[in-house]
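Q: Could you fold this chain for me?
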Amino acid sequence: MRSELKKLYYLTSRNIKLYFKDKMTFFVSLITPLILLILFITFLNSTYQSTILEIIGDFSIDDRLIDGFTGGWLFSSVLSVSCITVAFCSGIMIIDKINKANVDFVVTPIKKSTLQFSYVLSNLFSTMIVCFVLLIIGLIYLSFVGFYLSFVDILLILVNIFITSLFGTILANIIWSFTNSQGVMSGICTLVSALYGFICGAYMPINTMGSAMQAVTAFLPGTYSTILFRQGFLRGTLDEMSNTLPPEMIDGIATGFDYNFSFFGADVSTLTMFLVVLGATLILLGVLKLISNIRLKKKVTKVKTIQ
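A: Sure. Below is the predicted structure, expressed as structure tokens.
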């Protein structure tokens, strides 16, 4: 047991170092956050500010509240997408397959489960490191434009980063289990980076989507993860706004910007959202374990046949 833990530690460390050593892979992982930041600065910031001003009408609130709200919405979007896209673009498993390094591991006294777990752990740590850096950048940005986050809010964000990164990591490793091509890997990373932000409500509020798309997003774990990031970043700002604006306006802003979420008319609580994302993660973990067991049995059967 102690020997396997040592092997797991060294393999995980090796995978993390390989990821950060490869500058191109690291840059590709950051493409989506960079695109979001550029879009926000160029187009979305003024659009969201105008939307809030339209909602409040003749009421007047501090500009820092508006800037803090739009900034919080930006970084909730960045983190919700990055936890998934970085997980897909930081996996070393597929790189080892392409470079045939996995063949070398087969002839070493390393259990297949240890090797698989090292890929998951290293992928998770690499994703979380990038997301934590993005979080720090977001907190620094908000400290300049309008910081209203409490300790509980930051704790909610941190827990959600971990669960969402784990979800994205396991999902990525399931897909990489069936992939051996650099072209396929690049295509999947591009597809995930382009589509995930739209289907989980990160690029645009879910309320602005068509009714059919809203129904689809209600069944996606990524949607609930995005809402949890919204709640972490926007709770303090909305509480501060409630000192000036009537409850109806606060509710309108919260609903319009996906702070509140309902499942076909039924309000979904924060705890329920956490349970949905955690439950989906555990299901994926079971699927990954099942795939590993099936592949191991096939390998054993093949060896016996040859003998």
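A (continued): The two ends are 30 Å apart (CA to CA).
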